[in-house]
Write a structure and sequence with these properties.
By secondary structure, the chain is mainly alpha-helical. It folds into two domains: about 90 residues, DNA polymerase, domain 1, CATH 1.10.150.130; about 180 residues, Intergrase catalytic core (hpI Integrase, Chain A, Orthogonal Bundle). It is built from 13 helices and four strands. It has a two-stranded antiparallel ribbon. Helix 1 runs antiparallel to helix 2 and helix 6 crosses helix 10. The protein is elongated, with a radius of gyration of 25 Å. The termini are far apart.
Length: about 300
């Protein structure tokens, strides 16, 4: 290979990720940390490592959990692929890296009945605390979490004019700076309008839809509010969080026959594999969906002769 140090090779790889791959800053930092750690274990011999060296590297990772080993191996495979493509080296020894089998954890989910109870608790609050600004704010937050599947950070940091009455969608910039179109239900728009119109709602001198102090509502406070509401609905608070409501949005849409690619776009997943986790949540429903809607289900069964 060309006479290049690990530091130079890693820097070139990270620059490529930023310039051509559009990788997020945190991703680049994480990749750099993994590569520098591997270089240190191989005493500066990562860029020129052969299969035997990578096997030693895998052995040094034996004390780590499978997810960490899988991540490190994935980073190094991309690194060696880059070195080969750039002709910095003539081969790719990454087949020698470990390939631990990892299983993505299934997301916590809420049933339709659970969600109904949450909205019943919201309605009870509305009746008992008529005209209360904090109740109107909470209703708007929950409607957006479950109705549009926003991430907690995306939700609390929404600009004050993010939604317009004549526009049934938002344009959000999510992870990695990727923009996506998020549909907003009539219910959510009405809830946001009620919150915005309240005298104690977002003021004209505030840039955020959900302001708090000198900034916007914190994710921690949102988490606390959601769990408090779960308790009022008779659901164990440990089962509910903003992210669980996002999961419920995705799961219930898929149960209703939503297209997986459309769901990927709405959730802002870069990888369809991330979205596919929801297909495992209610596989029985998907079987019923195929049996009910597949065109071959209307054809007569072929009998053996």
């Amino acid at each position: 290979m060309a006479d290049m140090t690990d530091r130079e090779a890693i820097q070139q790889f990270l620059e490529m990720l930023a310039a051509e791959g559009g990788a997020a800053k945190n991703t680049i930092l994480a990749y750099g940390a993994d590569l520098r750690g591997a270089s240190e274990l191989l005493e500066g011999g990562l860029a020129g490592a052969d299969a035997a060296a990578l096997q030693r590297l895998g052995a040094a990772w034996m004390t780590l959990n499978r997810a960490s080993v899988a991540r490190k191996s994935s980073v190094l495979r991309r690194f060696f692929g880059f070195l080969e493509e750039e002709r910095i080296r003539s081969d790719d020894p990454s087949d020698a890296l470990p390939r631990p089998v990892t299983q993505r954890a299934l997301p916590k989910i809420l049933s339709h009945d659970d969600v109904a109870r949450i909205f019943e608790a919201l309605e009870t609050r509305r009746r008992e605390r008529a005209g209360d600004a904090l109740t109107l704010r909470l209703i708007a937050l929950i409607e957006l979490l479950y109705g549009s599947g926003l991430r907690a950070t995306e939700l609390v940091s929404l600009p004050r004019h993010a939604m317009r009455s004549d526009q049934p969608f938002l344009i959000l910039r999510g992870k990695g700076g990727r923009e996506r179109l998020v549909p907003i239900s009539d219910r959510a728009r009405a809830a946001v309008a009620a919150w915005s119109a309240h005298p104690n709602g977002p003021r004209g001198d505030q840039p955020w839809l959900f302001p708090s102090g000198h900034g916007f509502l914190s994710r921690v406070r949102l988490f606390q509010m959601v769990r408090e509401l779960a308790g009022e609905a008779g659901i164990p608070p440990s089962r509910v969080s903003p992210h669980v409501l996002r999961h419920a949005f995705a799961t219930h849409l898929l149960e209703g026959g939503a297209d997986l690619r459309a769901l990927q776009t709405m959730l802002g997943h870069a990888d369809i594999g991330t979205t596919q986790i929801y297909t495992h949540v209610n596989s029985a429903h998907l079987v019923e969906l195929v049996n009910a809607r597949h065109p071959l289900m209307d054809k007569p069964k072929v009998r053996p002769s």
